[in-house]
Design brief:
The complex is a heterodimer of chains A (261) and B (258). Chain A is built from 14 helices and no strands. Chain A has 261 residues and is mainly alpha-helical. In chain A, helix 1 packs across helix 13 and helix 10 packs antiparallel against helix 13. The longest helix of chain A has 34 residues. Helices cover 40% and strands 23% of the residues of chain B. In chain B, helix 6 links the parallel strand 5 and strand 6. Chain B is built from 10 helices and 9 strands. In chain B, strands 1, 2, 3, 4, 5, 6, 7, 8 and 9 form a 9-stranded mixed beta sheet that branches. Chain B folds into 2 domains: 148 residues, Periplasmic binding protein-like II (D-Maltodextrin-Binding Protein, domain 2); 100 residues, D-Maltodextrin-Binding Protein, domain 2 (3-Layer(aba) Sandwich). The chains are: A mainly alpha (261), B alpha/beta (258). Chains A and B meet through helix 12 of A and helix 4 and strand 6 of B.
Amino acid sequence: MRRERVPIVVLVLAAIGAAFFIVPLLGLIVRSPWRDAVTALTAPETVEALKLSLFASLSATAAGLVLGVPLAWLYARVEFPGRNLLRALTTLPMVLPPVVGGIALLLAFGRRGLVGSWLDSTFGITLPFTTAGVVMAETFVAMPFLILTVEAGLRSMDRRYEEAARTLGASRWRVFTRVTLPLIGPSLFAGAVLCWARALGEFGATITFAGNFPGVTQTMPLAVYLLLETNQEASYILSLVLLLVSLVVLVGLRDRWLGSA
Amino acid sequence: MRSRLSLVIVAAAFLAACGSSGGTAASSPSPTPLSGSISVFAAASLTASFNALGASFQTAHPGVTSKFNYAGSPTLVTQIEQGGPADVFASADTTNMDKLTTDGFTVGSSSVFAHNQLEIVVAPGNPKGITGLADLAKPGVIYITEAPTVPAGKYSLQALASAGVKVTPKSLETSVTGVISKIETGDADAGIVYTTDVSAAGSKVSGVQIPANNVIATYPIVVVKGTTNSVVANVFITYVLSASGQSTLQSFGFLAAS
């Protein structure tokens, strides 16, 4: 491998760019009161927020798998009018400010919302201020990551295995569950992990749609935000926990995302 | 640094405008026109009233630019302590003011410039028939309030406790505006906010007064240590406390300072 001579300007700008990301992380690590870490992490409010965050983000990932994989399959395999438009609409939350997502959810599934008013009058179900509302907000924001990852996996897989299974008489559903899904396993896993990590960090849509109440809708990011105003040290520690999770996810997926393969 | 730079720019512009007379302005017996810029960190509940105050302050002192940063009082304290460029801090409670003072970020002692009180905010026309604090605990009423870290949330707890009302909110919003917006969308039935917030929201919500067990919020204001323009900062505070400043505040529903 030949060593490229790098123009000095590029080098300097790249160094500034890298520092821009690394310095804030260092700030968090250096300023965190490590001595109080155990106290902060075992405080009842923290444990409550952690439990809720885990439950909600895993539920959102499950919902993402159940609803997102079929969408990804449609996008990868079926030519239909408006496919690109539909794909854009279902992946919009990736670039939408989460608060806007929360407002949109409120106007659709809130008590006076398009669907929400019907849910309320027919079944007596209201979603804002409930854990179900948290799961919805997280699914809304995180599922697009799963859809796109799984679609890419479906597009790059070798379809001859599916055709072989079909000629051997397997039903379409059987081919899907026994051949397609196992073959795209790595994409499925990567998509699910990305979706989960995004759901775990969700703040804007959650606080807008589901509100903030300890044990019901107060997830880790909400707790971090509120702690910043009362107990800054604890909020630093919780931020570090979220940072660590993100790091583990990135490192775990490096083959897929950093192209080291 | 920021205000120093803009002060230099404004001063240069001022000198250029005054031409040769600029050099003698400092020694002239008449009061020197104020110049420079100040940034005021003010509690979110002051947004509308301080925007109006800022406009009239600028009319009175054309050489001065005032900028406002509105957020919850605890957020502002954090921002100032982390080096936020504030010249003046106006808090919605004494707790956050005391914190900033104790931590050594203020100059001198603060002055109380306004009072506010709580009011129940409901949907227009009050469809749930809420008449007082006790009704917040009625079955079928979705009640929300602010988190106890936010002054309004702390006061609402005090008011409910002194009225002997036990009610669990569905949500602890991070700001008064969060409560108002969820009442507007109809997702919650009732919340506790400041009287000034109900009047600022206009016809989109209705207010139910709390005649007994109300809590009076105290708004103190102070010059922040490290200000680059303490003269203008002090003049601004004097203006807020003046008859004209007070009448502006009262037009937004605040109670008089004294």
